Amino acid sequence: MAADDLYRGDHLPQVAADILALPTRQLQRIAVIRIGQLTRGELSGAALEARRGWPDLSDCRKLYFDVRQGGLEVGRGYTPQWRIVYRLTDPPPGPDQRLLLQVVAVGARPRGAVYVEAGDRLGRTPPQRTPIRQPAAPNAGAPARRSLAEAQRAALERASRSVRRRL
Question: pTM of this prediction?
């Protein structure tokens, strides 16, 4: 089976570039292995949810991968730093009615870089964040009021200081 049969080729050159951009050969190899496992149905990633301020990738899934101490370990008490973002799309018209795997992006987890890239490739830009204005506090210019206990404590300290000065 050719790669064109397995993948929807929209983002294939970009995904290949993503894989080659991974920092080590071992990470590149693991990414290719994981994508192969996805195509064979051996693995399934977690569904992505729509998040405020991020591109809507709710129709996509994510798969974690990482290298740790020379071995392949995923999800053993730490957070893997690399993601494969993909989605399953409807098959084209014809006799073969299998869902198609579309790998959208492969990249780093920190600061959501891979999710932003996936959103860009799918033409989904995140909504512009508008700063939330905090309502002005009543009497914002007035000095803060002290509680009765604080006022009494302050008065007692002033009184004890003045007594010490007299002695």
Answer: 0.64
